[in-house]
Amino acid sequence: MVPTSQPVEHTGNQVFVSGSLSFDSFRGLLAAIHQAAIEKGHAEVTLDFSATTWVDPGPMVAVLAFCIQLRDEFDVGFSLVRPGAGKVWRLFSNANWAHLVAPQKFSKSTWHPPSGLPASRFRSPKEQDEIVSRIVDAVLTSPAGLARPGLAAFEWAVNEITDNVLQHADSAQGGLVQLNHHPNRKQLEFTVADAGRGIPDTMRTTRPSISDPDALQLSIQRGITRDKEVGQGNGLFGTHRASKVGTGDFVIHSGHASIRSNLRAREETVPVAGTLVVVTLDYSDPEALWRALDIHDTGADPAGDYIENRYEDDSDAVLHFVVRSEASSVGSRSSGRLSRAKIENLMAMYPNYPVNIDFGDISVVSSSFADEFLGKLFVRTGALRFMNTVRLRNVSPTARAVLDRAILQRAAQASED
């Protein structure tokens, strides 16, 4: 490795990153990659993170979007030297960064944290819808315990920012999105990045003389959009409003400008191809996120979102939980834990709704799954509410015996305690 005195240096086709890759240094990494691949014409570029001690997810996702564009449009190959620090080394694998940089060497991440989503690519409305559903499902399974309006606000914000990529970026590569959960701070953070036109260039289609900083400031105002035929311009405005709740934050980097939640745009020397948006939402106040959106007069409403479409039924006031669709396995304790967390969050959102738990197409469940899922749910919910609220449907005799035993054992243990 070549010693580095700056956060980012490059020699020939090798780019070295040392210390911390942050919002202050990632533009230098973009410039170094551009110089090696485009200006110097190297067909293979090595990104060496061996001396890197930490990487902020937002800046890294922007770097990944740029690498994907260079690989797809200019046939530039990338190799990766991962960080030497164990925690950061694992982050490159778990967050899917290693695969997105060098897919021929690193396999796709199989890490599925209960409250996060590794960096994932979307290029079509169908892929966007699938990824947003995965993100909302991850939050629903997490210990965040968002209130119903809060989860609707979160889903709305992720939908709006990812849709902006498809509607305005003009990028054949689509975009990338990553979800991180900071439970100690009661924060959900999602990052969306693309290597398309960027906000300033998009805004100049109707405002030719606008500067990059002014374009970012204008983009966050209510009703500002390039084309009213493809959107009403409420996405960035509403999301920024939600990010101002509590300890939330809001960051955009695009073109030669950046802006944070204080809405004072700053001119940047090194450009960002495309747009990077990092949104941090504070969910400590159960109702504040939806109130803060301030988009109710635009017709936005939490109805018709993921929760309603997946769990509610217009014909009855009942939640429907299909175990085959919700649980990754009915043979493991960890799967039972995640399924119980989801049920508990749904019951908190709908305290007066009964829950139909459908075991259709499942002939048998393991004792550990049954204990973690229904045994602990019985104790944590309380016997009276459990019996009045939870309804088991389509349970095979074999599975019924295991589930009944798990509930009875937990009930006996609780009475002894």
**What is the domain tally?**
3
Q: Give me the oligomer status.
A: single chain
Q: Trace the largest sheet across and list its strands.
A: 5-6-7-9-8
The rounded distance between the terminal residues' Cα atoms is 60 Å
Tell me the name of the CATH class of the largest domain.
Answer: Alpha Beta
Q: Give the name of the CATH architecture of the largest domain.
A: 2-Layer Sandwich
> What portion of residues is helical?
40-55%
User: Averaged pLDDT, please?
Assistant: 89
Order of helices and strands: EEHEHEHHEHHEEHHHEEHHEHHEHHEH
* Helix and strand composition category: alpha/beta
Can you describe this structure in just a few lines?
The chain is α/β, with parallel strands linked by helices. The protein is built from 16 helices and twelve strands. The longest helix has 21 residues.
Structure, explained:
The protein is of the alpha/beta class and 417 residues long. It has three domains: 109 residues, Transcription Regulator spoIIAA, CATH 3.30.750.24; 191 residues, Histidine kinase-like ATPase, C-terminal domain (Heat Shock Protein 90, 2-Layer Sandwich), CATH 3.30.565; 105 residues, no CATH class. 43% of the residues lie in helices and 22% in strands. The chain contains 16 helices and twelve strands. The strands form three sheets. Strands 5-6-7-9-8 form a five-stranded antiparallel β-sheet, with helices on both faces. The chain has a four-stranded mixed β-sheet with strand order 1-2-3-4, covered by helices on one side. Helix 1 runs parallel beside helix 2. It is globular and about 70 Å long. The protein starts with 7 loop residues before the first strand and ends with a helix. About 2% of the residues have low confidence.
